[in-house]
Amino acid sequence: MQSLSFENDPARDGQMIVNLGPSHPATHGTLQVVLQMEGENIIKAEPVIGYLHRGVEKLGENLSYAQFIPLTDRMNYCSPIQNNVGYVLAVEKLLGIQDPPRSRVLRVLLSELTRVSDHLVCIGVNAVDIGAFSAYLYIFQEREIIYDLLEMAAGQRLHTSITRIGGMFRDIPDEFVPLCEKLLESCSKTIDEMESLLTHNPIWADRTKGVGVFTVEQAVSWGYTGPCLRACGLPHDLRRAQPYLDYETYDFDIPVGTTGDVYDRYLVRTEEMRQSLLIVKQCLKRLKEIGPGPVITDDYKVALPPKDKVYTSMESLIRHFKLVMHGMEVPVGEVYSATEAANGELGFYIISDGGKSPYRIHVRPPCYPIFNSIEDKIRGRLLADFLAEMGSMNIIAGELDR
Amino acid sequence: MIVERIDEVMPETITDRHYFRGDQTIVIDPSKYLDVVKFIFDEGFQLMIDLTAVDWPDRQPRFDVVVHFQNLVSQERLRIKTPVAAGQSMPSLTGIHKCANWFEREVFDMFGIAFDGHPNMTRLFMWSDFVGHPLQKDFPLDGGDTWCSSDTGTSYAGHARSLAD
């Protein structure tokens, strides 16, 4: 945070300073933007962040590798499972291990469900900010079902913490698959309904077309990734470009936009939800093919042995004790592992000195460089455009400030 | 691939290198930092993914500035590490990569490494009269005094660095 500097004396020139946030409904979390306005036009916008800074990276240096998992879903609380998955993939890369096939499919399945719910929140709330309230009511029904599914799988709606190093904490229950199949049907219908409310709605188009236009060069220079980059016209998706979790074996398309404005981002996100539902469908089919099986690795130097073994076999009891008291044996080295989260590239950079906890852990949140560009993007535009732009950037203060 | 290319065009720039779990890392001298970043930009590494720092209190020089780049065409990734001594500043990348702006401010805030040529070298997350740099290893986990301001006789005092001194 900083003391604010303005280019001229605002009062003298008949200008006004408007404080947007830190607790304004349109900021979706605690972040503040100080706007220097002349009438309705923004002369300068200065984002002030740090209100939700909890020192996650510092905490990570003092916790064991497994204890960091619950902190990850508190960063992006709109797509918690993607953060869980991104983190454990980084640790697994450091250890050089892989989780069992059933766990890999489950991770993809749950990640894609949260991608849908994240996009639903982004579009719905963006529309509410602009004044189109009804779409929100329709699509939040589907979000509710997705959260029910997450609750079934993880026992928690928001703070899932479902992944473990080397697999998942548990398998999905039997009731999961029927509800998920129901969701596939109802959600694609709801997306169609949402499109009929928004896509050809002249008011929505007026408010969103031409707002926040960016070229690919500008977007790359500002470090854009994810839907915001794809809306500019670059088909870059880590699920395709640098596949992880066997994404190369799934059949899906990468939608791209042309201008990078708010309307294009809306279209890209809408199509991405449909593609995610397709992936979910393929996952359900694969789960049937794989059949029941372990969801966590049987390497007990990494993952806790099952309770019945702990109570009956000496070896497992020792492993359990060693793992809880001393932690895993981790090689010395550094890795950067990136996954395609709903907002863009979510990266974890871990340095290990061979100790119980990471020497340094750094999170690269996707919305951080994107929000950085708002000053450049919004100069000279109207306050109303600013709200449309900020909504479609999908800024989550939790991961922005960490 | 890019590592061999740097060796070819700018011989003896890379002081150390390693390849671990598919990540390629090079270590360079701070004086060559800007030239290398400009060179790899022309070679296609145009997306700056991340910039951060690591504190090694027992080592000389004390800090590492770590930057991750990605080539959007070949999908190759490169990590550049630059050792920096405490009190030494680094050239800013904001002239080449606009997104370096907040990343560098964050490193200044959390580690106290200043970047020359940055348009707005102020704290990003912490408030302006906060004392100390939280991600330095000797900063206490509980944050020291809760009201960490400069004149309250904090339990943790003295490591703050401003651009003025």
Short description:
Chain A has 402 residues and is mainly alpha-helical.
Structural write-up:
The complex is a heterodimer of chains A (402) and B (165). Chain A is mainly alpha-helical. Chain A contains 17 helices and eight strands. In chain A, β4 and β5 (167-168) form a beta hairpin. The longest helix of chain A has 30 residues, at 101-130. Chain A is globular and about 80 Å long. Chain A starts with 15 loop residues before the first strand and ends with a helix. Chain B has a domain at 2-116: NADH:ubiquinone oxidoreductase Nqo5 subunit (Beta Polymerase, domain 2), CATH 3.30.460.80. In chain B, β6 (90-91), α3 (100-111) and β7 form a beta-alpha-beta unit. The A-B interface holds A 1-3, 49-50, 53, 55, 57-59, 62, 93-94, 96, 220-223, 225, 234, 236, 241-242, 333-336, 338, 345, 347, 349, 351, 359-360, 362, 364, 368-369, 372-373, 376, 401 and B 20-23, 25, 46-50, 52, 54-55, 66, 68, 72, 75, 77, 79, 97-99, 101-103, 110, 120, 122-128, 134-135, 139, 141, 143.
Main sheet strand line-up of chain A: 1-2-3
Return Rg of chain B in Å. Answer: 17 Å
Percentage of helical residues of chain B?
10-25%
Task: Give the spatial strand order of the biggest sheet of chain B.
Answer: 1-2-5-4-3
Record keyword descriptors for this entry.
heterodimer; A: mainly alpha; Cytochrome-c3 Hydrogenase, chain B; three-stranded antiparallel sheet; 17 helices; globular; B: 165 residues; alpha/beta; Beta Polymerase, domain 2; five-stranded mixed sheet; 3 helices; 7 strands
Please render the helix and strand layout as text.
The complex is a heterodimer of chains A (402) and B (165).
Chain A: E1 16-20, E2 32-38, E3 41-48, H1 56-62, H2 69-72, H3 80-95, H4 101-130, H5 134-154, E4 163-164, E5 167-168, H6 176-198, H7 202-208, H8 216-221, H9 227-230, H10 238-241, H11 262-290, H12 307-312, H13 314-326, E6 333-340, E7 345-352, E8 360-364, H14 367-372, H15 374-378, H16 383-393, H17 397-401
Antiparallel strand pairs in A: 1-2, 2-3, 4-5, 6-7, 7-8
Chain B: H1 2-9, E1 14-20, E2 23-28, H2 33-42, E3 47-55, E4 63-70, E5 77-84, E6 90-91, H3 100-111, E7 115-116
Parallel strand pairs in B: 2-5, 6-7
Antiparallel strand pairs in B: 1-2, 3-4, 4-5
